[in-house]
Amino acid sequence: MSDNDCARLYEITRRWADRIRPDEVPEDIPVKRLPRSTYGGDNPYNGFTGAERRRGEQVGQVLRRNGIIAKPAACDICGKTERIGYHGEDYYDPFSMARVCFPCHMAIHRRFKSPEKWQALLEKNAHSPFIEEFRALPMQEVDFAAWLRANTPGPHDMVRRVWPDREVPDYKPRPNKVLRAIEAAQPTETEWKLLRVLRENPGATSEGLSAKIGWQGQAWHLKFGQFCRRLEADLGPAPFADTRKDDAGEPAKFYIGLLADFDNATRGFTLRKDAAKALDQVFGN
Ligand SMILES: [Zn+2]
Known about the structure:
Layout: H1 2-20, H2 50-65, E1 84-88, E2 97-101, H3 102-109, H4 115-124, H5 131-135, H6 144-151, H7 158-162, H8 177-184, H9 189-200, E3 204-205, H10 206-213, H11 219-229, H12 232-235, E4 240-245, E5 251-253, E6 260-263, E7 268-271, H13 273-283
Antiparallel strand pairs: 1-2, 3-7, 4-5, 6-7
The chain binds zinc ion (ZN).
Zinc ion (ZN) binds next to strand 2 and helix 3.
């Protein structure tokens, strides 16, 4: 049953590809690296992984930017012209896409869970010239990716399909200034721990943060102050402490202030925004 579904789906996706693919596709489509994907999800579809789906969105961006794929004008299902994008069933082929508006796009993906709504949409747009293609979409989830790998010539990788002979690196967020400084300071394992507990416990006191690491007293802020001092060359100058004086009787520097704010009332430490962003890149979201 599923094999039949896949064979039928393949026919549809071939039609989509024939419609979108320009007569001449340049041999080497210019790109240094893939752009950031606007698709943030990680859900598999048709057997394609979240990563493969993001890859499809990234490659699509490059093709549109280079004018190789036109901006879609109207929805293949309902004919509306607002919020039009592309929908793919075959994430190995950058041209195999239907042009659909956002609500119709959502209905396609929800058709397994809400088949009645999907049928109603199809009925309502029975006059659309492309409606048969959508009627023919499988109504159960299929591993189309595996079917394609078994039954069609490769490469079964969208990037390889567009750039067969060269490496195109994936998008990599540029490390921000704070992250560069932290990495340059080469934190020890303990120092990474200091950063991690602060990130995970915004507003906690030094005692609280120390306890999280299994230390007594205020060991956290003493050690963290020493670490932050090493960042001053890159991120400084450090602010001065409100009341504390150094040995010479001058206002002491508050090195932790390079990365965190201190609330005098609660005695709590919280990462500054730029530092929080930097650590999101290290520890993930
Ligand atoms: Zn639509």
